[in-house]
Design goal:
The structure is a homodimer. Chain A is an all-alpha fold and about 220 residues long. The first copy, chain A, contains nine helices and no strands. In chain A, α4 runs antiparallel to α5, α4 runs parallel beside α7 and α7 crosses α8. Chain A is elongated, with a radius of gyration of 22 Å. Chain A binds a DNA duplex (30 and 30 nucleotides) through α1 and α3. Chains A, B: One of its GO terms (molecular function) is transcription cis-regulatory region binding. Chains A, B: Keywords: DNA-binding, Transcription, Transcription regulation.
DNA sequence: AGTAGATGCGACAGAAATGACGCAACTAAT
DNA sequence: ATTAGTTGCGTCATTTCTGTCGCATCTACT
């Protein structure tokens, strides 16, 4: 990826970064945006974009590769294979949320098969599965759970949280979002115990003891 | 929508249906498919598609409108406002899953603002919120839950289940998927009780009583 | 059977995006 | 200061999709 025949000049490297950042911004708002729009957002001429990225496809691929690298780092930094499952789950969620919020477009694209990014995604997936396996062995996840389903649910919850967190900026917000993701993943949104024998209470009136259990 | 100057001839009406069905199929596989591809899949000439739908946009809009109608019917048929919350939740999930599996493309698009479909979506959303409110009052959903988050999670789970159910065809499969969606929504994938005092068990070894509770 | 409507086919025009070039002006590195 | 690399601008060719039209043929309704 970085193995060019010769090192880039400093200004050229800056331009590449600027273009990629602009591409992420523009494409997040409209995934069908043209090279022209991306160039305008980057403050460069359209031909310059084409000089750096031969085709539109190449630009997107580079963008995905860049984001995937950060994604990978975010997961690894949480040490999902060694720290206690619950801690790892929370930390991974926090780190991934930050990346997903900042790289919405690039993270929503599948990596080209055979690419470096594809390998990284596969590696992340394997680490995720391993984490869930450990969580199950530790009694954190129910023993009868289909781990593939658990992973899918986890990914989906993170996606929702990231969507919700797009406008938030304060540091604590990501932590709160992550806490909710983990809590929902493990316990759902239901009350702890089911009130009636079959769980089928009346339609709307206050049937059971309304208090049930205030917090969770 | 159906108020044309004159009724369509029978064959023309068949053609419109055929085109819409083909469009759903083709666009589900590639949302950027051309009118040419859609026409080919429908077995008609490209010009015929343009005769029935002036622009590509109009075609997609009609497709969304058609699917949204079915979506709406699927929700209403489950009587989410009157049946017991848990029953309604399951029935809505089953019905919606069937529509989402068969109308993957159309259901993945937002309705044009101001359109009939947009009103239907809003109505469905209101019914969903009302259902969750009732579920909370009945003690099915924890009282402290953010209902908007609950709805988002619910939508996301249905989406995942629909994605998984794309290849399935046997009747019971949808019921099983729906059961898993509702179960996960309410209870998550975690074990019922947290083993340790803080939930932080050892990294991988069998720490707590592995049996915990065999099934759910 | 007769008529109005529907379709297939070929052709055409227009728009928009992509990608490539050459040249003049500028800038980083030596 | 020299040199090599970089950028902006204008231009051009090509491709692809869209949308329209006319005409011959066929088909549904009465």
């Amino acid at each position: 990826m970085e193995t060019k025949g010769r090192a880039m000049r400093a200004d050229a490297e800056r331009t590449v970064r600027t273009i990629l950042e602009a591409a992420e911004r523009v494409l997040a708002a409209d995934s069908a945006a043209t090279m022209e729009q991306i160039a305008a957002a980057a403050g460069v001429a359209r031909t310059t974009v084409h000089r750096r990225f031969a085709t539109r496809e190449a630009l997107v691929e580079a963008l995905v590769a860049w984001a995937t690298e950060r994604f990978h780092q975010a997961v690894e930094a949480a040490r999902p294979l060694t720290s206690p499952p619950l801690v790892a789950l929370h930390q991974v969620t926090v780190n991934v949320l930050q990346v997903k919020i900042g790289w919405r477009f690039a993270m929503s694209r599948p990596a080209a098969s055979g690419s470096e990014a594809a390998y990284e995604h596969a590696d992340i997936l394997a680490q995720c599965d391993e984490l869930f396996r450990r969580a199950r062995d530790a009694g954190l996840v129910a023993s009868g759970t289909d781990l593939e389903w658990a992973r899918r649910v986890y990914y989906a919850l993170i996606h929702e949280a990231a969507e919700e967190g797009r406008e938030l900026v304060d540091a604590g917000a990501v932590d709160r979002l992550a806490a909710r993701v983990v809590d929902t993943l493990l316990h759902g949104v239901g009350a702890q115990a089911q009130p009636g024998p079959s769980g089928l209470s009346g339609s709307s009136g206050p049937s059971g003891p309304g208090a049930g259990g205030s917090a969770r």
